[in-house]
Known about the structure:
This protein has 10 helices and 10 strands. By secondary structure, it is α/β, with parallel strands linked by helices. The protein has 2 domains: 2-124 and 189-273, 3-Layer(aba) Sandwich (Rossmann fold); 137-185, no CATH class. An 8-stranded mixed beta sheet has the order 1-2-4-3-5-6-9-10, sandwiched between helices. It has a two-stranded antiparallel ribbon with strand order 7-8. Helix 3 links the parallel strand 5 and strand 6. The longest helix is centred in the N-terminal third of the chain and has 14 residues, at 69-82. The two termini are 28 Å apart. The model has no long low-confidence stretch (mean pLDDT 96).
Amino acid sequence: MKFTTSDGLKLAYEDEGEGTVLLCLPGLMRNARDFDDLAAAISGVRLVRLTYRGRGESDYDPNYANYNVPQEAKDALELLDHLEIEKAVYVGTSRGGIIAMRTATMAKDRMSGVLLNDIGPELSSDGLSRIMDHLGIQPKAKTFEAAAADLRANMGTEFPKLTDADWLVQAKRWMEMGPDGVQLNYDPKLRDAMIEYSSKDQPDPWFLFDAMEGLPLALIRGANSDLLSEECAAKMRERRPDMIYANVPDKGHVPFLNEPEAIAAIEKLIEQVG
């Protein structure tokens, strides 16, 4: 399904189930497939998944500068408007969590709770460097099998228990087949947008985190994450002692949200939301 934004782009989304609304916002280079594992592991909820502009089946923006957090937060709110949803639990994976925090400064009344998946106000330089090393760079692999092998070589230490079949699933989620082999399934200009956006003054990230005060909140961290450090997670817990917390073993950036620890945290959050 698609809806049209106020500036005329058609964005892909998925809407399934009944119950508490979970608005699922994926990672920087990803799409609605980020939540396939969660969808298979949870019931009794309405799962609404947005694929941002410039990713997957959503329209690419002719102005790549619009690939930014405030615009994507606005797009998410417009999706809620389109579906006539007053409030939702924001489930933000990586970039999606930053969008959730930003939304708390824009339209907190539209949020009934927040789940941050391996993201926080402070990001480790090692993780950021790894992301920038391949953001917007077309893969060299000609087949999904070769792409899966590359993923395992680059990320295997963070996800030691994933099988070759698991890595193949990830490759097919994060890439697509083009005329010359495997290619990115998002606009490569996202790299330019990130470089330009990061050079501008940004709000204090802890101000964004504090903006969620009063909202039911959960944090899920991959125990092997190279982006969200244990130290940052500890600061977040100190700042929000009521925050539900799960540290998922054998996963890095990011947990798949189908792990027992993650599901338990999500269910507890939904209970708090009521």
